[in-house]
Amino acid sequence: MPNLRRGATRLRIRGPAVTVAIRVAIFLLSLVLASVLIFVVCAALPGDIAQVILGQNATSESLAALRHSLGLDRPLLSRYLDWVGGMLTGDFGTSFFTRLPVADQIATRLAVTGWLVFFGMAVALLVAVPVGMIAAVRRRRLSGAVISGLSQIGLAVPAFWAGILAVFIFAVKLRWLPANGYVPLREDPMQWAAHLVLPVLSLAVVQASVLTRYVRSAIVDVLEEDYIRTARAAGWTRLGALWRHGLRNASISVVTVLGLQLATLFVGAIVIESVFALPGLGQLLLDAVAQRDLMVVQGTVMVLVFAVLVVNTAVDLSYVALDPRIRTARR
Amino acid sequence: MRRVTLLAGVALVSVVVLLALVSFVWTPYDPVRVDPSARLLGPSAAHWLGTDGFGIDIASRIMVAAQTCLLVGVIAVGIAALVGVPIGIGSGLLGGWFSEVVMRVTDVLYAFPALLLAILLAAAFGASTWTAMIAIGIATIPAFARVARAGTVQVMASDYVLAARSCGTGRAAIAGRHILPNVAPVVGVQASVAFGIAILAEAALSYLGLATPPPTPTWGRMLRDAQTYLFTEPSLALWPGLAIAVAVLGFNLLGDGLRDLLDPKLREQAR
Amino acid sequence: MTKKLVSAVALALAAAMALTACTSASSAPSPAQQLTIGASLEPPTLDPTGSDAASIPQVLLYNVYETLIKIDNAGKFQPLLAQKWQTSPDRTGYTFTLANATFASGRPVTSKDVAWSLDRVRAGNNVAAASQLSVIKSVSTPNPTTVVVRLTKPSSSWLFAMASTAGIIFDSASTSDFATVPAGSGPYRLARWTKGSDLALDRNNAYWQRKAAFDTVTFRYFTDPNAMNSALLSGGLDVISNLQVPQTLPQFADTSRYRVIEGTTNGEVVMSLNNSAKALSDKRVRQAINYAVDRQALVDTVWAGKGTLIGSMVPPTDPWYTDLSQTYPYDPAKARQLLAQAGYSHGLRLRMRLPVVPYATASGQFVASQLADVGIQVTTEELEFPRWLDQVFTKADYDISIVAHVEARDMVRFADPKYYFRYDNPTVTRLVAEADAGSEAQQIAKMKQVAAILANDAAADWLFLLPNLVVTTADVTGVPQNATTLSFDLSSIAKAA
After folding, report:
1. Does B170 touch chain C (CB under 8 A)?
2. What are the domain boundaries of chain A?
3. Which residues are registered as beta bridge partners of C239?
């Protein structure tokens, strides 16, 4: 009989080293594929950067000269190879407009987006893990239902609307916090924190709702496992049994979601940056697209995609670490 | 409890659909006609939700915007399902390296979220309802592919399919007879969830100006406009956001309710 | 020229302050004086010859770089790097005598620098500036303090250009890359430029005239106008160089804390009508459109009632201004009548293609609604700037568009039949040429004629003139009311300690 059960479980029955190697290879291939896609799409965007820089009175000679000096008249393949080759050494090229290194601009902006995403996720986790556990343990009581209901609502609220409402309440009415803008950490740590509170909270409200639901359902699954019942029978309390035996198992599915959410968080941050006028990666991207500053567009999209791919790979690899069956490749 | 979820979902979705349908034939006021003499009026008997900075009735705009929201949802989810489900089923059915490759390629799509695609599409073709729908649709393909594949693999491993295979039934026949009926409910649930996500994405895109251009009202654009008046007329920011939340909540509850109804064991495995 | 327009669009208009000549209203600098200014568009480069973005002169002109002459509040020329200048009787020769000025580097400003700078501008990528200097036949430097410029023909606009970006004098001995490190003779020097965030100037302590009032002046850039407002509200800014969302003015109503300066700019918000499009080539249709739009209501709705109705391409600060705003008063019945006469009694469909800027989006929505009232169905499309530039501005593939033209004295655009207005009127072309070649009095008379012809011809629909809305904290003084150049001139501004 043919092996009909292969497919989904195929990766799982290999040894950990092979699993890791395959996953890393897939990651690298995806990266290459993504870079080609990005480059091709950017090259195909209508709107001539030389014309944007020079204006309409530009003669065709001056346009050609500028395109030449920007290297835009070279064959696509060599431009692509230069770009990719540069990125491997950390050189993302030079902005057509500002003539500043793209990598520097991305780094500055990434700091803003990075803080936003980091704190957004941290706050969401701090809320979601305990709340999700309570909701799971008390799932048959009113408090559990209320938490589920609230998380359901939180899931439906657009983060940017939460942001706008937060601005109204905390900045316009109460005047506790600035409505928007950003101050770098090294300039003024207090102001930096004050400017991040509302964006982080808006991002975290939605994320916490998503995570709470996943934590809850993961814990519920675990609670119904035999070993918890055994532990309960052996005199452990429900929470104690959960703590002792269940968390590792629950964490596998939570980590999956965490990873995927981290990826969407990076992108969701673009909208939040817009609400709060934070000079992050998203604003850099939107501005660069509007100016057809393709080197910046390519670089920024590549960094975002890279982040998503890294997270996805890390999630997959974390299975190996967290799932003893995969780790020891028992089968 | 399960019934409550489903019913609540159906009720909320019905409200949104009804608003959209009614708006085709009737709205309290013209949703695009500017009236400089009626600017920024608060809620009243004449204007239930007040008027915006152009003197346009907000209730009318909310109603008409439901059309765009549903249209984007239907087309985006349609694209995702029509492309994603065959990929998922095919990959689950054939298995092996081919399956791996196909799924990994769709995984690369995961790295291009709707927002990035929408930015690039808007840059290439100009922002419109279509670029938004297509961007959201493409970005949602992997979710459908995964769900369909998981369902297929599950069915393929079931005893009755094993029995059918050992009797020499072909793959196509199995796909038609066993897989499609079994995968359909999961896909249905996924569609409802994806619909909610699509509405959120559309709202974010129109908020950023990357979707439907004015004067066609959209909830996202209304929120952007409302931000200007946050200090003077904050209530403008309330209604469109509420509309989005209700619509998304409706589709999420519908999805959860359907899931529970179809298979209580099927939990949130949709990624 | 285009890039000026580029910035016009993107900036919604450059905050441009009139100068108060060389007399600085500020007191002697007190220790650690800082000024932080919010602006909406960041310079793409710091080289004024690299791009004609209005954001470059906003920061650099008169502050970091100086010109031979400057224009004062009343539109009169005043000496700057040139202490005096003489015009030849045939008005094609100009002799400038340089003041005893020095660059920030300490080098004296010599006639060689002037000749070098004029060459640099003419060869540069700022096509607008280069073309403004294209009438120059020769530049000679008989001695270090004398520059003689010969023109191919008399030109009033040339001297005007010499007082703006095109006339910037660079330090010819500088080896720095002007795109990131300016080298001028102004009261300030570049301190730092954090791309995407802010640009700081500090006092040029070797300045050859009265030293600057501030130790540091920081221009902070905000893509989001609301963010700029909150920055002022939370104490992060002293000045909003130009309020982009006038609807938010009530936030600054507290006169004990804020000061709102309201004046005019050169930014005409033009609803351009493609004069070569089939329907719009008919004057009656253009007139109908002008009658159909209630411009006062439009300003009230989209720009909180701030802004001036102009009726032609002339701001009130130009010498040839006359009030033409009532040429086509709001009269929808008349509009319908004209449309019927033109053969469109059963309706007319037009494409409105707008750049993505707040005033265009809002005005477009308003106009589309009012045109629908008289039977013109407008389909609206929003184009990102590069696409707008390509399709509307270059290829004139549009019926209606809306964009602010912020450049000073840009009525002359209508004299170019190839400009995206596609307005082809030989009389206007001739009058504009004569105005440039004539004396000042002739120039004013002819330009007045042109303005009237354009208004009557309904060559476009001039929706309104963008206001110069500067908001400052109460301790900032000396911000000029009207913006007559693209420079945010710091010379008259002071801040109570």
Report:
1. no
2. 2-88, 107-322
3. C37, C472
Q: Do C382 and B33 touch (CB under 8 A)?
A: no
Task: Please give the Cα distance from A63 to A53 (Å, whole number).
Answer: 9
Distance, in Å, from the CA atom of B224 to the CA atom of B20, rounded to the nearest integer, reads: 21
Find the length of chain A. Answer: 331
Q: What is the mean pLDDT of chain B?
A: 87
Q: Out of 3.10.105.10, 3.30.470.20, 3.40.640.10, 2.170.30.10, which CATH number does the structure's domain C265-467 have? A: 3.10.105.10
> Shortest Cα distance from B24 to chain A (angstroms)?
26
SS3 assignment, position C107: coil
Cβ within 8 Å, pair A158-B204: yes
Mean pLDDT in residue range C119-145: 91
Encode C404-437 in three state secondary structure: EECCCCHHHHHHCCCCCCCCCCHHHHHHHHHHHH
- Helix A189-223 vs helix A159-166: crossing angle, to nearest 10: 130
Quote the distance between the C-alpha of residue A219 and its chain's center: 24
- CATH code reported for the domain at A107-322: 1.10.3720.10
The answer to whether A179 contacts C389, with C-beta atoms less than 8 Å apart, is no
**Has domain C25-221+475-495 been given CATH number 3.40.190.10?**
yes
Task: State both tokens at C53.
Answer: 């973005």
Q: Encode pLDDT of C439-489 as tens digits.
A: 889 999 999 999 999 999 999 999 999 999 999 999 999 998 888 888 999
Is pLDDT of B194 > 90?
A: yes
Q: How confident is the model at residue A247 (pLDDT cuts 50, 70, 90)?
A: confident
- Residues carrying CATH 3.40.190.10, chain C: 25-221+475-495
CATH fit for domain B2-17+50-270, picks 3.30.479.20, 3.30.2310.20, 1.10.287.3510, 1.10.3720.10: 1.10.3720.10
Provide the token pair at C281. 């080539």
Q: What single string gives the DSSP state of each residue in B109-133?
A: HHTS-HHHHHHHHHHHH-S-HHHHH
Q: Does B127 touch chain C (CB under 8 A)?
A: yes
* CA C406 – CA A255 distance, rounded (Å): 54
Q: What is the pTM of this model?
A: 0.85
Q: C210 Cβ partners below 8 Å, 6+ apart?
A: C22, C24, C187
* Whole-number Å distance between alpha carbons of C446 and C439: 10
pLDDT band (50, 70, 90) for residue A57 = low
Q: What is the pLDDT of residues C194-205, one digit of tens each?
A: 877 789 999 999
With an 8 Å Cβ cutoff, are B252 and A286 in contact? no
Residue C50 exposure: Cα atoms within 13 Å on the Cβ side: 17
Task: Fill in the DSSP letter of residue C102.
Answer: B
Does B124 touch chain A if contact means CB atoms closer than 8 Å?
yes
**In the beta sheet, which residues pair with residue C169?**
C66
Distance set, CA C114 to CA B112, B255, C127, C184, C313 (Å): 53, 73, 19, 12, 33
